[in-house]
Design a protein that fits this description.
single chain; mainly alpha; 2 helices
Length: 66
């Protein structure tokens, strides 16, 4: 049973979702999330680099020239 005026077609986007997409705060949160992910990846790579330096291992596996 549906209430008159409340049913929507699955193809029609919600008005609320349009507002969220254009909201400056939502865009800023998305950019900050992306920045956070990038910083996390950089930290992970730096930790791996430090571990390899402390262990005396090269960063890249070199092939011998035979």
């Amino acid at each position: 049973m549906s209430v008159a005026g409340t049913s929507r077609s699955s193809k029609e986007p919600s008005v609320l979702s349009k507002e969220k997409k254009s909201d400056p705060a939502t865009k800023k949160v998305g950019k900050l999330g992306s920045l956070s992910a990038s910083t996390t990846m950089d930290n992970k790579l730096l930790r791996e680099k430090i571990e390899r330096m402390e262990a005396g291992r090269p960063f890249v596996q070199w092939r011998s020239r035979q």
